[in-house]
Structures are given as structure tokens and as C-alpha cells.
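Hi R.,

Here are the chain sequences for the assembly we discussed:
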Amino acid sequence: MPVRSLSDKVATLNDVPSLVTADSLIGIGGVLLRRKPMSLLKSLFRVERNPIRAITFLGGFEVEWLAAHGRIAELTSGYVGLESYGGTPAWNDSLNAGSVVMHELSELMFVTGLRASASGVSFLPSRGAAGSDLAITASLREIECPYTKEKLWAIPALRPDVSLIHAERADRFGNVDAPGIRDFLWDSDLTLARASQMTIVGVEHIVDTDELTAPVLFAHEIDHVIEVRGGAAPTELPGQYLAQRKRILQYLSLVKDGHPCHSAMIESFAEMDA
Amino acid sequence: MKKGELPSKATEVCWALARQTLPSDVVIVGVGTPLAAIAALLARDVLHPNLTVLFGTAIDPKSFDLAASLFDSSVVANCAVGNYSQIEVLDYLARGGVTLQFVSPLEIDRQGNLNVSRVLNDDGTWRRFAGSLAIPDTAALVGRLVAYRVDHDRRFFPDRVAFVSGAAPDDRRLGPRHIGHGALTAITARATVRLGSTPAVLEYQGEREGIEEEFGFSVDIGSACHRAAIPSEVLKALNRIDPLNVRGMEQRSTRDTTIARLLARTP
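And here is the predicted structure of the full complex:
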């Protein structure tokens, strides 16, 4: 009888630069100040690399960190900010200076694009963003429903070459457990992973398959698993650790006092550049 | 609030927002607008007990520690009836299930177009802001939107927004039809204004004299009425719901001190 032998997907942070090719469109998981794959992002820059092209549903600290270091050239997203705490000065300055490009999408446009990719079709119809100038800036095309004649947007598929996400637990084959707490948009990384050509997942713990309680992404959908403790810090991993908001505010305060974003970021988050 | 002290601007706006709810509304509030969340919880507490509140993706959370929820996303999730997935909540929006949303844009014009994306500099270049979130979608799909900003500013009310992030239903230039009514009401500490008609009509706070100069479009002050005082039971409810005055984060003069106070409680 043949023996079942799943591929071992375990990699290390040192492997990340070679797994993510230079011109990749990178999907960044997490939302706002939660579940951002900070360690995976940081590891991209262990080698000399041009500023990246990325997509993220709702950007937060990770976009600011990338912008403060001049490590991002282009972003597709619905929002970049630090929730109630304010804007992202490095990102905003770069955007307004024209040194980065943002393709702004509404939330429905973004997720419909991911769902099209995950479904293997080139577009999906949506009623979102009716009448919005975003439909013009995104060059959306209108279609007519062949059944009802209703006008709808054809939202093009959004397909990252590789996505980076961070979770609590997975086994070495790539089965990823559900989070302990199903908080705000906990599942957005599932859609992102399924829309992507390749997915690298960082986890706090690699465990035996028997220890998984309710896997939500599966071995055949995940390409690499990397164990990295505190891999979402300084953002929150709900139920595991909180976002380091005091330090984020310290960074904002330094910038407000006239420090350049780059040096303020290094001063506030030295470990991110160690 | 101490005895004899006047309600803050944020308190005024909170109550004015709560009064926009209807008994069977399904109201959605974002995670970055605590004042909107407080207004929805206040409305459920003192006006319409059957109101359904979607706090982001959390369905009908019981009363919870709002300040703690700003730091720890498990707080709301743990006290909700359940939590929608990303796709479930967006599908619910798309099929017109949400009847009310409180939004805080950069600008709202006389027709009800919302701008949350960018404004024009004097030199003709754009100044970009954080981004539109779901506002382009909800402007078209949610039953009705109420725009708010605590501090009244004429720049909040241009005759025409610089960029249409979320379109007014009467200003549809392209694309699918609206199934919602869009943003037809805007609220600040100074006034509540009904939009979509010319001239717009308003309810004001404080002095009436000169109020028409505080908008970038014509407003009808002939039928304007003074905003009623906040009932004491509402203030008591607000103290229960928001004892740490988290709503002060959205008022310019109290923003920094509120954040500092809340951070002092952070683990």
C-alpha cells in the first residue's frame, strides 16, 4: 500500500529573498494594525532589493515602515493609515511627492478582484463604487447583465504573484489553523492566499497536524511555512499580543517634532532594522 | 461630565447622530470612528432597542469597554453575537442589507457627494489622504449615510467636492445604479443639514446669526430650528457607554489628551 507523504514546506526567513522574485507583485496580509507579516516583509530586505510593488486590503504600519525606508514603489489598497491614531506621514509624503504610486480601490472593488482571481476568472461583476471617481481612476469597464440588463462594473482579477501572511499555528505541511479569536476581518488572509499564485505563511508555532483545531488554509494551498515568534509585531496578533501603539505614537510624535520619518522609524523600531 | 458643565461638541454630535436612527435600522460603523460606534450604541440604548449594530464585522456586540476595544480587537469579537467574515459582510452590503452608516469624510457637497480620497492644492496638484475604505460602495448600497465631523468647518461643506469618492444618488454619471439613498444628512457640532435639495435646510446649535456663511453652498435658514438640549437620561447613558470619553478623539481640541489618557491604560 502506498504511504502518504506530504511535502515538508518548512522554510526559514533566510529563504524569503530568493522565494520572492524582484518584480513580484506582493500581497500583504492582515488589516490596519493587525496580523501584518512584519518579519516576512523585513526578511525580504536581507538582500539588496528595489522598492516593491504590493497590494493590501487595508494598509497600516507595514506600509509606513516600507515608505519610511523607501522600500515601496507602488501599492494597490483601499486605505493606508493608523486607525484612530492618525495618518502615515512617510507614506503620505511619498505619495504627495510622487515617489510612490497608489492605486486606490474601494473595499468591494478590492475583494471582488481577489475573488475573481480565486475563482479563476478574469473579472467578476459588482455594484460597488457606483458613480465614484475611483471607477474612473481604476479604468473600470461597465457591462450589462445578459439576464436583467442591469449595468454593473466588471472588476478585473487581482492576482498577486506571492502573498505573505502571518498566523498563529500551522503544521509543517502548510495546514494553517484558524485564529483563536475571530476578530475584525480575521479571514481576509484566506481570500488573499487563494487569489495568489504563491503563499508564504509565517506562524508563531509549527505544530503536529493532530494539534490543529480548525484549519482554514490547507497544505495544497500553501507553498512555504516559516516559524517566527512575534512575526506580526509591532502590529497585533489578536489573542496573542497587542499592537505596540505607544511606540507607534512615539514615532508619530518624533515626526511631528520635525524628525525625518526614516530616522524616527529607526529610533522607534530599532529591532525592525537590526 | 460634571454638574453644570455644558456637553462637549463630541457629545452634541454623538446625540445628533443617534437621533438619525430608525427602530429597525441595521447600522454599520467602522473601527476607526469611535464616535460613530458610540452613537450607534447610544441609539440602541435609549431610542431603539431592536437596532442592529454591526461594529465592523462584529454583529450586535453587547455593551463593552470601548477604550479597551481600541487596543485589543478581541474585546468586541468576544462580546458579539457573532462575527461576519470579510466576504459575508461585503455581500450583505452589496445586496442592500445595511440601512444606515455614519461616515466621517473630508468633504461633503450640497448634493451629498463624499470625498475621502484627495483634495486639490492651490497649485493644481492633488493632496492624497488615507483612502476611501468602503465609502464608494456604501454610498451606493447602504440605505442612507449620515456624514459627520465634530468641528464645523466651511471647507467640510464645499459646493462641489474635489473628488467624488462616494457618489450622491442624483449625481450618477456612470456605472451601476444606486440601490441606497446616499448621504443626505451631514452633522457637525454647529448644525445638522439636509442635503440633496437647493437650498439645503438645517438645524443649528448656538447662534443663528451668520450661520449661512459657514457653508460653501446656500442653506435655507428660513425654516432653520435650534437644536434641542440633550436630555439628562441620554447624558447618563453616554456616561455608561463611554465613561472614558473616547468620543473626544474626534474633537480637535481634545484629541491629543484623549489619546494620551487612553494610552495610559494600555497594558
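Chain B touches chain A through 60 residues (CB under 8 Å). Residues 79 and 165 of chain B are 33 Å apart (CA to CA).

Let me know if anything looks off.

Best,
T.
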